[in-house]
Amino acid sequence: MTGDILNKIRETEFFKELSDDASAAVAAKASIRKFAVGDALMRKGDPADSFFVILDGHLKIVTTDAKGDEIIINKVGPGESIGELALVDERPRSAGVVALDAVEALELTKEAFFDLLNHRLDVSLGILRGFSNRLRFSTTYIEKVIDWSQKTAEGDYSFMEQTQPINNRTGNDDDKAAQLLSAFYSMVRKVKAREETLKQELERLTFEIDQERRKKEFDEITGSEFYAKLKEQAKSLRQKRADQ
Amino acid sequence: MAGKIVSIHSFRGGTGKSNTTANLASQVAMTGKRVGVVDTDIQSPGIHVLFGLDEHKMGKTLNDYLHGKASIREVGYSVGDNKVEGEGRSQLAGKNLFLFPSSIKGKEISQILHEGVDFNKLNEGLQTAITEFNLDYLFIDTHPGLNEETLLSIATSDILIIILRPDNQDLQGTAVTVDVARSLDVPNLFLMVNKALPKYDFAEIKKDIEEQFQAIVTSVLPLSFDMAENASRDLFSLRYPDHEWSKALKNIVPHILNAK
Ligand SMILES: Nc1ncnc2c1ncn2[C@@H]1O[C@H](COP(=O)(O)OP(=O)(O)OP(=O)(O)O)[C@@H](O)[C@H]1O
Ligand SMILES: [Mg+2]
User: Domains in chain B, please, with CATH?
Assistant: First the structure.
């Protein structure tokens, strides 16, 4: 196993935290697999008996819709790993994975993986550390999204000015949280823009009062004898009520 | 502290005076205040409908009082003590809300229009209603325009709410009414906009009208299909408390309660 492969192993999110020694232990248990365009690494429903780290090439993750047509869920490339969660939670494959070009991948079988976990504390710890980093990373983003959601609900968009949009599109699994944040940010920006155009679209009424007519009508009403008497009466009535 | 007279007025007809008066009076009664409602629109009375009082149940009226045939005490109809239909209205059970209706009999209407209203007598009636029923607020639903009865109710009021639609004709008439109210030294003058099309910017309407008249616009109420559909059959703001119309209407309540 060359140093190149060791480096590739450590480039993956999954094994990022592993020491040289631990990476070498993983490499020793793994085998290199090559796939041609259209080859399936795994099919939906297969038992989860190994996982892959992509060294070279690209793959699509696919499922089928109700009619049986293929739906591409995602595309993955070098440095990404596939199927590691299924190994741990022991469920069958939830999607199929098909090579889009010539693919070179490192396969670690379930037995090899569990054997590593069993005998190499440093490998176990490294993997755990990777998981906890991802978790912490996600939590921070989720907290931000919660905070922004609350502000948006209140119509407070002030955070938009203090925040730079994140444009992190490396496609790594844990970048999903960052993507969520980014998508959320652009959603709020669009909502805000729509709200503003809506405000502008509200028609403005213009009012005009004919001041001359206003004065004339006022004089007509207040010029009568009745009015003069009423004004006097009103004054004394209000006074009377106030004294009561 | 004597009760206050709150007149609801509009220069033109059909602005929503009766609906506003009835809902506002009910909302104030719901706060525990003792409230009266007088229908001085003797030409075309209507507010009794909102309280579910029909011709058959209507006893003595303001007309009887004005003709010396009944006392104000006899004219007062306790809404809170009478069982009424309607999800909104029935919430008034046990509240202190008294209605002083005008006659809806054609003969009696033409009689009073012919003879004219004795203003001193009407005035005395309003004062007596306040003292005898120990009212905190007496609401007056008026006839549109600036005829003599209406001028009287404006003159005697402590609080005047002028309703207008966002419409240039309403605005012109309102301008005159505001001038008259100021000339009569009405202590608290408020404007309320009703039937505003939702496509307009309500905040702008409020601001524009406040600038025009240098008076407070308590709220801008939307033209609402639901209100029209209710067709004065129930007290809308009690029945649909979360409706935009109701929420805007309820904005007026503190202006009334806090008026000096
Ligand atoms: N905001 C609104 N949206 C839709 N319809 C409304 C609204 N306000 C009132 N209405 C309707 O308009 C009509 C007139 O209302 P109302 O009788 O309260 O007005 P008014 O000013 O007392 O009329 P009048 O001048 O004839 O006494 C009623 O059918 C009422 O249901
Ligand atoms: Mg009316």
Answer: 4-257 (3.40.50.300)
